[in-house]
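Budget justification aside, the reviewers requested a transparent look at the raw inputs and outputs of the sequence design task funded under Objective 1. We therefore reproduce one unedited record. The lines immediately below are the structure tokens for a 549-residue chain.
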């Protein structure tokens, strides 16, 4: 009879829709074969700090759910023992057990407890628990009943492992789909930003040129409005590029601690004085390879996000640490390797977020703020920058309990280069007489850039593609090659490689409004569109002075 009932139960559990339905089947089998009718499963949550009780046969289900929600598994030695068992354990009378919380025993009227470890290979899923309460009194199991419970525990373990595997697969598929959507949106955003930056360069450059001609003219207020609008539009374009990971990085070895301190000096003016900002920086050097400007944007975005979440007398804590992450810790992260990381943590005591908000928080254009308070790109930008630095970001939050963002960046074993105390002096004269080759497939971009350079005294040649540029380089004595990166056919990097191979003394300056993934870390000097005439002339002069030196 025992074998027949186990076979029936196995077939029934195979078709169970969920764990609740599974436990109803288990209860029915236990009532038929044994003297026990109260059975439940305890499984640990993924964080290993809380538990879930599955089974609808306890005396008061609502009370159980409320009390289970308050259980801290990592602080309860009585419960912890059941998640480490390899063999069944019987507690004849809970009232006599030294580890049991006697207040809870009295509330529930607990008596006998039988726990069967559910094992899936080496993974201990938790105990199948068979219990009696005050209405039944103490009932010790027979050998036949224990054998039955062991068999049921094995069947239930298989079902739980199957449900977990299915859930993990569904979550992975959902995450993959979300990643593919974000990558597609990122590519679109990057391509839009590329064209947008070309237009902004034309508008901004010609606005500056017009302003030089119209000093004191009645049209100057209108020119200033155009200039301000292009500056704001440039900021939006930079956010799109950061989200799409379409920026050219200039990584260098640096210590994260001084970067955080310098950034906090800048951000302090953006946070009301009534809000406390506390920094807790590790005394150790935190060496990383990073683009300092991009990381400053990460820190500022996270601090401003915290500012908007806290009350007027709120608190923001910025912390740095050196940590080691193992395979288990990064199991839910993609494209991340275990190892040593710099950990940057930004914590606030604001209103917090529910789980649904946390799932969407890094989506572009998602925001909990009013429509006029932000673009919804801030955290999407942060995630894009961190991903580009081969790191990852995690969020922890509870409603009315605050929020913590944790940014992990790979440690760099190299030492930071010595940095002089003085920055290079800005040249007084931005004019020159050298010869510059401007290469861009956009006609108006070439015209605008050429006009700026010509007005500064430079001799300018232009080309719309790589083949034409190489032909000009062969005929003319060019001092600086100023080329866009993304062009139809051969790109600006291949042109720079070919040109310097032929002409080693040639200076290279790359222009970019968007860089696909394989262009993002370059050794050539580069300038990001849309740039101003002054910014361009400063870069050109710096290159030429370097050549002279």
């Amino acid at each position: 009879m025992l074998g027949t009932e186990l076979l029936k139960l196995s077939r029934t559990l195979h078709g169970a829709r969920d764990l609740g339905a599974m436990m109803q089947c288990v209860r029915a089998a236990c009532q038929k074969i044994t003297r026990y009718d109260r059975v439940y499963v305890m499984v640990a949550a993924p964080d290993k700090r809380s538990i879930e009780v599955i089974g609808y046969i306890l005396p008061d289900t609502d009370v159980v759910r409320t009390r289970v929600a308050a259980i801290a598994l990592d602080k309860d030695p009585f419960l912890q023992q059941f998640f480490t068992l390899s063999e069944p354990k019987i507690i004849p009378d809970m009232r006599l057990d030294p580890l049991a919380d006697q207040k809870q025993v009295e509330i529930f009227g607990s008596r006998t407890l039988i726990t069967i470890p559910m094992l899936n290979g080496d993974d201990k899923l938790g105990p199948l628990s068979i219990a009696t309460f005050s209405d039944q009194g103490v009932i010790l199991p027979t050998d036949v009943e224990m054998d039955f419970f062991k068999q049921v525990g094995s069947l239930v373990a298989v079902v739980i492992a199957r449900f977990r595997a299915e859930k993990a697969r569904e979550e992975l598929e959902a995450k993959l789909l979300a990643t593919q959507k974000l990558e597609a949106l990122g590519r679109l955003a990057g391509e839009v930003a590329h064209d947008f930056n070309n237009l902004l360069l034309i508008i901004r450059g010609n606005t500056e040129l017009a302003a030089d001609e119209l000093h004191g003219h009645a049209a100057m207020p209108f020119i200033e409005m155009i200039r301000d609008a292009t500056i704001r539009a440039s900021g939006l374009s930079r956010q799109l590029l950061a989200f799409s990971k379409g920026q050219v990085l200039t990584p260098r070895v640096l210590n994260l601690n001084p970067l955080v301190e310098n950034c906090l000096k800048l951000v302090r003016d953006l946070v009301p004085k009534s809000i406390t900002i506390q920094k807790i920086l590790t005394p150790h050097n935190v060496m990383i390879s990073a683009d300092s400007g991009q990381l400053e944007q990460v820190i500022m975005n996270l601090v401003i996000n915290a500012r908007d979440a806290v009350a007027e007398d709120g608190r923001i804590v910025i912390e740095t640490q050196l940590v080691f992450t193992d395979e288990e810790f990064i199991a839910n992260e993609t494209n991340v390797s275990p190892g040593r990381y710099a950990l940057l943590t930004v914590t606030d005591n604001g209103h917090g977020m529910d789980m649904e908000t946390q799932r969407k928080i890094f989506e572009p254009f998602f925001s909990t703020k009013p429509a006029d308070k932000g673009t919804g790109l801030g955290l999407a930008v942060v995630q894009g920058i961190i991903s580009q630095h081969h790191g990852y970001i995690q969020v922890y939050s509870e409603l009315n309990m605050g929020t913590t963002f944790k940014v992990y960046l790979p440690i760099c074993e190299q030492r930071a280069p010595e940095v002089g105390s003085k920055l290079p002096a800005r040249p007084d004269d931005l004019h020159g007489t050298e010869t510059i080759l401007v290469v861009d497939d956009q006609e108006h971009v070439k015209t605008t850039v050429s006009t700026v350079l010509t007005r500064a005294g430079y001799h300018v040649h232009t080309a719309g593609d790589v083949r034409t540029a190489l032909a000009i380089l062969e005929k003319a004595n060019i001092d600086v090659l100023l080329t866009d990166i993304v062009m139809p056919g051969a790109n600006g990097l291949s042109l720079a490689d070919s040109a310097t191979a032929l002409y080693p003394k040639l200076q290279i300056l790359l222009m970019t409004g968007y860089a696909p993934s394989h262009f993002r870390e370059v050794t050539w000097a580069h300038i990001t569109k849309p740039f101003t005439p002054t910014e361009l002339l400063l870069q050109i002069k710096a290159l030429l002075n370097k050549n002279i030196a």
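The mean pLDDT is 82. The longest strand covers residues 110-120. Computational costs for records of this kind are itemized in the attached budget.
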